[in-house]
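Posting this for the archive.
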Amino acid sequence: MVFIPHYLKKERGKPFIPTWLGEADRPSSLGTDSFPTLEETGTSPLLLKGGVCVVPYEGLLPMDIRIEEGRILEIGEDLPEAGARIVPVRGKYVIPGILDPHVHLGIYAEFQDELATETRSAVLNGVTTIGLYVNSEESYLPMLEDTIRRIGEISLCDVFIHLAIFNRKQLEEIPLYHSRFGVTSFKTWMCGIPGLIPDAEDDFLMDLMETVASLGKGAVLNIHAENHRVVARATEKLKRKDPSSRSLSTWEESHPGFGEAEAVERAARLSDESGARIYFVHLSSKEAVQSAASLKHRRKNLYFETTSPYLTLCLEQNLNLLYKMSPPIRKREDQDALWEGLREGTLDTIGTDHTPMTREQKGAAPDVWGTPPGYPALGTHLPSLLHEAGKRNFPLERLIEKMTAEPAKVFGLFPRKGTLLPGSDADLVIVDPLLEKAVTHQAAASRADYALHEGKRLTGWPVAIIKSGRILDPVQGSQGVMRKIGRYLERGVDGDMG
């Protein structure tokens, strides 16, 4: 094993491509003809030679990586080549497989169908692990075994589960969900979706916090934080004013940013009584970021997520109803505040809130009020963020930390996931940050027949993915049948994998 010294910390505003790389070592738009395919590699040892490794909390390091039996065996300079298949990655970045903590499947199509199509979209585009939200109004005890079995049979990426808790029966069964199935993360909505998800009142929220806290220090409650009464009031006023509106700006007004901020502050205050770890999902507004910043230094049990659509899209781009989500995509000033929250350390993680739909499903209603929220985001998650981070001169290593190591730590998967250190799973992504391509829904590979940013040219793309030690070319993989390479990840409350 090779020890990595803690050095090469990057300053804020560091150029996206490090200046210390010589011209011959700079990432280029070379093709991927030299990469062996998934079928060719099998389970043979691999040696990635000549790449620039993005190691969370360490920096950008020109090192080789040796992979054996699905794990990273060692990382270091000039590793010996004996007995391994050489994979030349000179001029590319090597990053940990992306961990998306926020994915919804089975809402607008059959679960098993989307488990196949959307995990394919994930792994083809660099997301090798997902946090899957499972929703039901009934007890999860009869269904979890079957859900986990389907993951083992169908999924192309690794999956851990968050359970939505809607009622007292489910709340009482939380200890069983943990002890029998290794589930340590749960979710509630302070502001739900009419006809689909109920609002959680404060008394239920406090009881839920206490129950999750009783599991142990690794358990976490995920919260959609908006004040549902503020949202309902604004919605009714806007509906009366413009009942047939098709404007996303009107939709954004119906979910005021101050309502998101108030809910964050209220939930944080309630958590003081229980000591529960709270993970606030998909922060979207500048007001919520400001509230999170004021809470962060006083409370150590709070974590904050935003998503790639909120970081890469804004209302000034004249988006249509295909981009309706809850909370809504907001203004450029909100987008800027989110990036600053990442830079300052207020925001911990980046997910997608991936909820795939077709154009027909999105267009079934005549106005914004009836249009269902949701969009496909897994297929554009990594390239859209690489592109935007490059424009904003946001340090690459900090971006990758927010997409890998940080969510892995929150949800008890680190260091098995989220790093390139020896012993971790061999889930890696080879990235060419200078490769420019147009976004297509075919490459995104979702069941959705559109993609976020479709037609836009983005700079920075994965050119090969290594899942469990086996290499996949995203172009070849999008055109053929892929072998199942995913698994269910059981977790313990002490931060260990079950």
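The longest strand covers residues 428-438. Confidence is low (pLDDT under 50) at residues 1-36.
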